[in-house]
Task: structure prediction
Amino acid sequence: MEALITSIDHAILLWIHETLRTDIGTHFWEEVTDLGNVGLMWILLSVSLCLFKKTRLVGLSALAAFVIDAFLTNGVLKHWMARPRPFITYEDIMPLIPPPTDFSFPSGHTTSSFAVAFVFFELLPKKLSIPALLVAAAIAFSRLYLGVHYPTDVLAGMFIGYIVSRIAIFLVRYLSSHSWRSDAAEDGKSE
Result:
């Protein structure tokens, strides 16, 4: 089964590379993938939401999702799965950016982007959150176009991002409601 999945992954990547790659496209997708580098864009957006009381829960949930995802994806799953990058396994897959040296599964750019974007989708108005999902999807596709991930790395990243977003939202809501009760109880004692 694993060989079949890898074979389908390879065929899809080869089709993308032979059909969709252009000089202009390469420059565009390099810029898109840079949006997901170290999650800096998502961190900055999340921190900026923390600055305002009205959106603080969203910002904290997004930061929690980012941290949980970083630990799960880069700290656990990539090492556990130890899947080589497609350009290592297949000579006909050429990366268009400096080749990453860590493992391929799941895509860290994709998981972090979708973890935060799904938090935004759940907690922000759709006119703000749908663009975040579209940016996350573009970052995910850029990883395929640039030849550094398999399609299943990206699909798994989307799924993991969704699960992580749900966990982060639950944890932040739980902790904020628990903290509020503790503060209220202490205020009552001091009166």
Remarks:
- Helices lie at 2-19, 23-35, 40-50, 56-81, 86-89, 108-123, 126-145, 151-190.
- Residues 107 and 152 are 9 Å apart (CA to CA).
- The mean pLDDT is 92.
